[in-house]
Each structure stands twice: as structure tokens, then as C-alpha cells.
């Protein structure tokens, strides 16, 4: 349920459009283009009495504009070494929040293109839409008088064709982020695995995305033994029982590339037997944002329908419960690839629920055209410790590294402000997970938090490669398969707060919009 978006330009009678205010996002009033000359006058008058115009969001009386009012949200300087396109989305978020406080219900967002940031208008629109998201539980409970924070969001464009394209892209990308927020942000009961599966089935009804849900326990135990081990305790509660949600999109025309995605969908992470004590369990319903990213990306595919692209996805929806039947440290679990895995810490369940699905993708990849494999997960606290709270991390195996995959993702992320840092999987990471005795082939994890473990966000990528059998498809093999692990623990969003949608804007840019942005 996305806020209605429409485009307009200054040749249109704005009062007939019934907008009730203008939200201007720009570096400053003196840099506005000629087409927006009539916005400059009220700002010039205000700047004469307040030198903080570029530092605060302000509301001005502006006769002649829709609603006779103007909200100005400055980006501040955008030309320094450390500036990026997020200045525009941040300003739009602040501007729309101020417009809501002012009572606007039909705001017109104006963000003129910037010479150094060709996608600044689209990025501002996405920032505004992020601020307008209303949580799923709030919508379903009818707590508000409407399921929207505003009736309509107008987007200004200099030309009609440009405006139509802006609305199409903003609406399509936001539809994916909305699905991501609904799944990733909803509480552990509303998005328990069975209900998450139902949400996805409803989302893609009558769309080009095919959905298949695996719920049978015997099938889960046979096909996904590591996932089934995590599910063992939750399975005793019917409403918490695991689901594997499989998605597929096949674009028109000859397929030129196949993406194969596995998303971590821990609906709630208690830590299992290694319980999250000391008050750190709060927020663990967000441990499903990797799976939410998979669903969100498919929603964008369903809207934009790219040709020549096939995408296969899997959402591993499992609750890591604690109780008499939970899996415990020291257990030996044989993965789908036949690797004996020694459990070191039940709080490292994310890698367990993904590894067999990754193995399944590996098995299918040999028959696909130009396959690329990915795991996406809110996996480690170390990712936040290493890179901070706002950046996704991508790590390539050998074949993916040789193709420059991580660099391509990083570059794509910079276009719409969905930013990445690049890490490298090293030999120490593989050594870390080698079995420590003749009982096991692979050690799942040590018994320390990732944030207290050297290379704490890199070693899980090596585990996933080893336990899935992807180590037999490296650069030294006869059948190399490019694989990348993406840790979004830092970028998925704050709690309390609204999930960001990372990394689906970067994914869409890289694989759908590369030639159109």
C-alpha cells in the first residue's frame, strides 16, 4: 500500500492539482534553476532575516504557491569529499516530516536536478516516500483514520515525459521497499513464518513472480537439515513453524543472466540455548531483513519486468526459539552438501538456515545461464562494529572477485544512496571454520559474539562456502560459480525505527536500471 504519487510541472495549474503546500529540497535558493524562479523570492526575504536558512527546515508563507506555504529543506553543501547523494534523501525526509507537522495532506515535492548528482530528484522522492511509510500493523489495525500519512505526493519535473518516468521509478522502487519494511519491520507474531509466507503469496498473486512454499517438516528435515535443526524447537508451536518461500521471475526474451538469492529470515532470534541475555534480545524481530530484501527485490521485478533476466529466490523463514527441544552447541549436523557441521553457538543460527538453501542453489546453478549466487543477511554485529550503522558489506568468492562484482555493487549503490563497503574473504577465514577434531568437517562458529571475534563478519562467508560445498566451485575448479555474501546488519535500519530497504535499491540499479539512470 504505497502512497499515491503523481508528477507535475510549472506549466500546469497547480491549484487545480489541489496541492496544499510545496516542499523544496535544494542546496540553496540562489542555485535554483530559472524554471523555479518564483520560489526564490520568499526564500530571499527569509534569508535576509535568518542566516540559518540552510541549517534548519523552515516553513514560509508564500502567497501564490499551492496552500500559500513553502517548506524549505536544505541539503547543505554537497561538494565536499565526504558528501554523497544521501544529502538529498535526508533533506527530503526532514522536509516531509515538517510538512506533515504543518498539516499538509497533498504536498508537492520539488527537487531540481543537481549537476553533480544526476539522480538527485529520484533520491529525494524516495526519501520522501520513506518518511511517509505507515507500518503494516498500524494499517491493519485501522488505528489511524487513513492507511496513508498523506493523500498524494506530487513530484515536480521540468518536462512531462521526465515526470512520468520519475513517478514510474519512484513508485516501483518504493513498492519493493514497502514489502521489505512490512516483512522486516513487523513484530514476531505478525510476521511469524506461516504468516510471512501468506503475505508473500498474496503480494505476488496475479504477478509474473511464481511462489512456492515448503512447510512439510519431513521435507525440511530431508532437504534442509541445518535449517530443520534451528526449527526443531519452534516447530512445536504451530504458528511459529518454519517456512521456506521460493520465488522465481523469468523476464521476456532469451535469458542472459540468472541471479540466485538466499535471504535469512529469522522471525525472532532469542539466541536459542545460547540465550541473548542482558537486555540485548530486543529488536531481534529485525533478523528477517535478508529475506525481506529478497521479497522486496522480486516486487520491483514484478513492477518493472526487466527482459533477459531470470531471478530465483529463497526466503528461509525460521524462528530461533529456546526450549527443551532446541538445538544446542556441540551437536553435529550434516548439511545438504554432506559436510559434518559442529555447532559452536546456537546464536549463529543465520548461517545455519541459509547454508542448505545455498547448496540447493549451487546444485541448480550448473544448468542456469550466467548464474550468480548471493546470500543476504542481518548476520553479524561485527559488520556494525567494522563499518558503522549505515553501510552494507559485500564479500566475493574467487570467481565473483575476478568479475569485479563487489565493485559493481558498490558503484551501483552510490547512484541512489544505498551504500556498500567491500570486504575480502581470506585464508584465515577458511582456517577458522575447519573442524577442530576428527568428529567434524566444519566448525559452525566459536562461542564468542562476532563483535568480539577477529574478522567476525568475514568468517561466516567462508563457513557458507565450505558447508554448502561451494568451495568445490572456486577459481581452481572446472565449474567456477560466482558467489557473494552480503551482510546488512548495519544498513537494514535502526530499532526503534523503520527498516531502510537496503540493499534492494543497489540491486535494482545494478541489474534492472543500469542503462536508464
From TrEMBL:
A Pfam family the protein falls into: Peptidase_M17
A GO CC term assigned to this protein in UniProt: cytoplasm
Residues in Cytosol aminopeptidase domain copies: 345-352
Keyword annotations: Aminopeptidase, Hydrolase, Protease
InterPro entries for the chain: Leucine_aapep/pepB (IPR011356), Peptidase_M17_C (IPR000819)
GO MF entries: manganese ion binding; metalloaminopeptidase activity
Keyword Amino-acid biosynthesis: no
Gene Ontology biological process terms in this record: proteolysis
Entry similarity comment: Belongs to the peptidase M17 family.
Protein name as catalogued: Cytosol aminopeptidase domain-containing protein
